[in-house]
Amino acid sequence: MDLRRSLRRRTAATALAAVAVVSSLALAPAPAALGSAPQEATLSPALYRKGLQAKGTVVRQAGGVTVSRVVVTHKGAERVLYRVRVGGAFPPRALRYIVSADGEQIGYGLPTPNEHAVETVTTDAGVVDATIAAGYEGALSTGVADRPSGANKAADRMPDPGLSGPHEVSVEVYDLGNEVFQPTGFGRKVELTAEVQYPTDLDSGPYPLVLFLHGNHSTCFKGEKERFQWPCRTGWEPLPNYAGYGYIAERLASHGYIVVSVSANGVNVFGSRLEDTGMRQRGELLDKHLDLWNTWSTTGGAPFDDRFVGHVDMSRIGTMGHSRGGEGVVWHKTVDDERADPYGIDAVLSLAPVDFTRTTINGVAYATMLPYCDGDVSDLQGVHFFDDSRYNVPGDPAPKHTVTLYKANHNFYNTVWSPSGGYPGGFDDGDFSNCGERLGERRQRRIGRSYISGFFQRYLADDLSIDPMWTGAETPDYTSPAEVVVSYLAPDSPAFRLDLARFTEPLDLGDNEQGGNMVPQSLSRYGWCANDEVAPCVPEGYEFQDIHRPGLSRAVVGWSKDDARLGMELPVGSRDVSSFDAFQFRTVLPPGYGANRGIKFQDLVVALIDGGGNIAEVAASEVGNDALAALPHGQGHIILNQLRFPLERFEGVDLSDIREVQLRFSRTLQGVIDIADVAFSSGGAILPPN
Description:
The chain is α+β, with helices and mostly antiparallel strands. Helices cover 14% and strands 29% of the residues.
């Protein structure tokens, strides 16, 4: 048992050189979610494990590729397998490595402990003669490009929730052993280790509890070398991946929170052998730490004795996960809900997450943060958590958010993974994106700290002064709309949201959600797309840049006349919008349409028409049309972000009697945009207690 205590974090004194992370054989596979299932998915975990561990006969060895024929006994019968090993540099990352034979996926590559190769197991004898390659899963995802730097709106400012709070902070690490907790389906035990930062004056509590969970990375180090195995072999130390968020934890703790950053090295190693990389097991690990804190907060026990008894508010719990941990915290909500007596999770934030299983999350305040220059989760697949859960549960009382972080990469949010962190294996994954200008480590972390700390202050303490940064109304001090754009889905309640057009089905082109008519006029294009393999929402050649694909259907609206518009009539019973804060929708200027050529920012006008025939207009450029910025040279992520029109801007109309909302396309001569999630909306939601 190891207990270390200090009042301030120690930082590494020496920065080690970044390690190049390119495989020796290039492969650009189609994204796994869209392509055929890898061969190994047809093998049971037990058979796959036997194929990795059994001795075999080398039947091919050349050019960094080794193929071994392996004969194993499985369920009383002999099975012939082929273990394929591809040499190169393969550090553990958020997405998976793909092994292919003649261009066809045969399996996910498991990094070897020394990270100098990946291995997979297949039943396909063709690997003996085929062209074998291995590469990172997102390699074919269209590279991201830097975003236009111009913003058409001066940034509003609010206090930065990432600044220090009033509490002095203490830091401790509890280490209960490297092989002490048994997740389901592993056959091996993992560690129970975490760093906790908390207000030194515990008597001012009880304080909410927030758990952090890191993602996939090297697990052991010795000098400048790193390995991927668990537990670490003699002479090697565990890599403290959990310590990489201390700069966030310290600030959050200073505002009156107990923040526990959990080590998941063992889960990373053993989870990598499962198709979904052990997402349920990540949830089980977090729930086990909640069990520990429940004990320490009620009866006490080693290593803290009675220090935290009565000082932890187990009725207010939040989680933040990064990378694979970002999906892990979503799964933790499911795992906890399955308990006979769940703890109840109140706020969940996924930072640059993977989404291997397309799991939905409802009934809890949720945010997904998407770094635009992410060179690791390069397809920004975490947006699916938001898209898939929007209308999944009627009456869902929980708000949902996306935060697009322009110029930000994947690794800089974790100091251990960053080049300046002083640990082997740190690197700038933004080098693998097509972004030109990017944020440095310090600025990226400062912005990330503001939003992560602010999220839990907003939803665990109901601090409504922070609400504007989560509705998209304002950005906190030190950030700007050119760096951060927020999309907000209010709770599914008449008090907070009035949906006009969801565009989840083709019929939404004719009647809106309130039963009124959709009224297109002089449009050159007005259609609906499912955004799947058959009907993508952007022209051919750009569909793989659409981070929402597959899954987010939408309307496609085009114009070439200055009187073009799309009206949405409001029937009796839905005309009083005076209690809402804004009219808003998600939109994007997709590349590939000739009508958008040469346009840097599209513009449009929202018009509200009341029962007396009065009309009030507000242009997108007056409130910030960053969501309609063109992608540089047609390259970049296609992301639907929010356009928000504060209702206070619409002067001279009766907001209690609005008969029609119109999108008027009179500001530019022509164009095509995609639209989804059209609604009147309000912030300030207070979730009912669990």
